[in-house]
C-alpha cells in the first residue's frame, strides 16, 4: 500500500482528496495535516510514502514545509497541490525537491496517477503546470540558447522528436499517445529514452529544450 499524508488547511479539500485516493486499492490516506508544520511533524513520526502539500497555508506554507521534508525525511516523496496561475511557486518547488505538481481542479484519475508515480520515484507534473513552467522559463531566451537546444535535439530520432514536441505542449503520456496513435506505455518508454539521451532529469527540462529549439508538433517528422 502507498501511505499518503494529505495537507491542506481547507477541510473540504482534504475530504475530497481522501475520498478520491481511498477509491484506489493500492493507496491509503494514513494522516491529515492542516498546515506545513503539522505535515513535517507527522511525516517524521509516521511511515509515509507520499505527502500531498498545499502551498498557501498558515503557520508554515507548502514551500517551507517542502524544504523541511526534503532535509529531514528525504526518502518521503512530496507532491504539491496548487491553484491555477501560481506558476512562480511551480518553479520554486521544481527546484526544491518536489516530485511533482497538480492543480486542485485536476481530474481524480490524475491525482491517483500522480501519487502512484511519486511513490515509484517518478516525477509528475500535470500538463497545465508543465505549460506554465515552460512558458515562464522560456520567455526572453536568446538565439544562442535556441541553437544550443537544436544541437542537443540532433541526438533524437524523428519519432522521439515527435513525442518531445508533445511534451513541449505539456501533454500527458496518455494524451500524447492519443494524438499520435501510440499506447501510453509506449509513450512512457519514448519519454524515458528522450530524457536519457538529452541528459534531462524530468519532463519539464525536456519540454524547455523543445520550446528553446522551436520544436512544434506539426513540424515533426512521422
From TrEMBL:
CDD domains, alphabetized: LuxR_C_like, REC_NarL-like
Taxonomy, superkingdom: Bacteria
Sites bearing 4-aspartylphosphate, chain numbering: 54
UniProt-recorded Gene Ontology molecular function terms: DNA binding
Response regulatory domain residues: 3-119
Signal peptide feature range: none
SMART domains registered for this protein in UniProt: HTH_LUXR (SM00421), REC (SM00448)
Keywords: DNA-binding, Phosphoprotein, Transcription, Transcription regulation
Domain HTH luxR-type: 149-214
PANTHER family the UniProt entry points to: TRANSCRIPTIONAL REGULATORY PROTEIN NARL-RELATED (PTHR43214:SF24), TWO-COMPONENT RESPONSE REGULATOR (PTHR43214)
Full protein name: DNA-binding response regulator
